[in-house]
Write a structure and sequence with these properties.
Length: 124
Amino acid sequence: QVQLVESGGGLVQAGDSLRLSCEASGRSFSSYAMGWFRQAPGKEREFVAAISWSGGSTYYADSVKGRFTISRDNAKNTVYLQMNSLKPDDAAVYYCAAGPSGGVYYRSTSYNYWGQGTQVTVSS
């Protein structure tokens, strides 16, 4: 089993930045591809960003491309989401997920393990 715990969420003004962290424990962290998803009230959970097991490949939703950066530090068993130029539409609960090591995935059904989420609120 892999246990994932997100942190770093909070209340910010539009245009500000936040860095989310997802700390993993359990089975070997480096053997998993990782992803970030988000869900706002009344909305479906949507893909945000994904990264391969090695960190060599990344993929982003069009809505965050150029503003968000996903990265990982396998030595620290941690994946990050750097969020810049935040907009009110970015407000949501952000979830970290772990999936098979063979690729980079944008569908939530591709992931096997999920964290509890961290709240990001952006005021206008």
